[in-house]
């Protein structure tokens, strides 16, 4: 009888040990999975739109190929607008504009806005900021405008915007806590600057410079409809692309805007 009681106690003891061991292992596994997910870059499928402005393709695509966590398809104008249509755009987490067309068809305008209403993220890179002179809604989408012609501000006529190549820009990180600028400190970059541009007061500043030939902001975030938007006016040529800060900025911008759909 005593032997049976002893065996019963031993069985209970072993079962309790197994339960405790199972719980501990489970908690450890969950913790390790959480750490792995936190450290991983989310894979983003990006539609890169080009055309309307020349650029040095080989070093640009070499930079794009090295962006972590990003795969991309290239669409070139005039066929690029076909990728914005329902049934095609859903396959992309974000659209990266590195184009500069002056005009956009009416149907493409509708597809563009519908894309943003669905939450597809948008990154506007360098000369893409200068697109669509005669589409006022584009100003609202990207958070500003490069004006190729005289324009009005507070009832006063302003001269056209300007550009200047090969400037050494001292760039200040205005918001170091934002996901786009995370881990990035103030930096120097050799790049083209846009001056006399229009930037909406509603944008969230990320990057600024005190270069007289440049507008005060060279990077910001914006929202349009259900989409996140990042505009970076940096990125003219390989002098900028090969700066180690630039691909980090670009990949983090794509990751942030693309996460809106997930």
Please give a structural write-up:
It is a single chain. By secondary structure, the protein is α/β, with parallel strands linked by helices. The chain is built from six helices and 13 strands. The chain has helices at residues 2-39, 57-65, 106-117, 136-142, 238-241, 245-258; strands spanning 44-51, 70-76, 94-99, 121-125, 144-145, 151-153, 156-158, 162-173, 187-195, 198-199, 204-209, 217-224, 227-232. Residues 12-39 have low confidence and may be disordered.
For the biggest sheet, the summary is: 9 strands, mixed
**Unreliable spans:** 12-39
Distance separating the two termini: 63 Å
CATH architecture term: 3-Layer(aba) Sandwich
CATH fold-level topology: Rossmann fold
DSSP strand count: 13
One letter per element, helices H and strands E, the order comes to HEHEEHEHEEEEEEEEEHH
Determine the oligomeric state from the structure.
single chain
CATH class: Alpha Beta
How much of the sequence lies in strands comes to 25-35%
CATH homologous superfamily label: Class I glutamine amidotransferase (GATase) domain
Tally of discrete structural domains: 1
Determine the number of helices (DSSP H or I, runs of at least 4 residues): 6
Main structural class:
alpha/beta
Strand order in the sheet with the most strands: 2-1-3-4-13-12-11-8-9
Helix content: 25-40%
Q: Estimate the mean pLDDT confidence.
A: 88
Judging from the principal axes of the Cα atoms, what is the shape? globular
Radius of gyration: 25 Å
């Amino acid at each position: 009888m005593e032997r049976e009681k002893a065996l019963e106690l031993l069985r209970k003891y072993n079962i309790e040990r197994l339960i405790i061991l199972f719980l501990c292992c489970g908690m450890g596994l969950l913790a390790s999975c959480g750490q792995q997910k936190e450290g991983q870059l989310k894979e983003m499928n990006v539609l890169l739109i080009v055309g309307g402005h020349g650029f040095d393709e080989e070093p640009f695509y070499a930079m794009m190929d090295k962006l972590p966590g990003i795969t991309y398809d290239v669409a070139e104008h005039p066929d690029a607008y076909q990728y914005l249509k329902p049934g095609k755009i859903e396959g992309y987490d974000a659209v990266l504009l590195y184009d500069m067309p002056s005009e956009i068809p009416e149907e493409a305008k509708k597809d563009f806005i519908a894309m943003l209403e669905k939450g597809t993220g948008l990154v506007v890179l360098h000369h893409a900021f200068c697109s669509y002179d005669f589409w006022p809604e584009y100003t609202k989408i990207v958070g500003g405008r490069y004006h190729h012609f005289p324009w009005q501000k507070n009832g006063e006529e302003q001269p056209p915007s300007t550009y200047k190549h090969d400037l050494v820009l001292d760039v200040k990180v205005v918001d170091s806590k934002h996901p786009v600028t995370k881990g990035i400190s103030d930096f120097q970059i050799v790049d083209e600057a846009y001056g006399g541009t229009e930037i909406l007061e509603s944008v969230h500043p990320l990057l600024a410079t005190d270069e007289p030939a440049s507008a005060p902001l060279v990077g910001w975030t914006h929202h349009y409809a259900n989409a996140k938007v990042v505009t970076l006016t940096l990125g003219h040529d390989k002098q900028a692309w090969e700066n180690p800060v630039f691909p980090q900025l670009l990949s983090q911008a794509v990751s942030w805007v693309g996460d809106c759909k997930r």
